[in-house]
Design goal:
The N and C termini lie far apart (33 Å). The protein is globular and about 45 Å long. It is mostly helical. It has one domain: Four Helix Bundle (Hemerythrin (Met), subunit A) (Up-down Bundle). Helix 1 runs antiparallel to helix 2. The protein contains five helices and no strands. The structure holds zinc ion. The site of zinc ion has 8 residues, from helix 5.
Length: 114
Amino acid sequence: MKADQVAKIKKRLLSLRDEILKVIEWRDGSESGGGAMDEIDQANELIEKEMGFVMSSNMRANLKEVEEALDRIEKKHYGKCLHCGEEISPKRLEVLPFARYCVPCQEKIESKGR
Ligand SMILES: [Zn+2]
């Protein structure tokens, strides 16, 4: 994966993390100040649209995935499947920037759980 592609994804992940933190903070301390609601709605919408996240109690799990992806970028492991070590296709990473596994491994893992 090219450095400029990774840089672009990193930027997306960082702004996504900001949005998720905003929502989490808002949920934790929703007493303070009206008017923040609109902003949070916008953040929710953006995250849903960007990532197809299901907005629910999963927020913290989502945050963790984003942070792990950022960590992998820092350690130059980004874009490699954590299971088989193969490169994850850039197309997949564009849709799912925090993907941990390549498609075949993901499918294997998912079918194992059933
Ligand atoms: Zn794999």
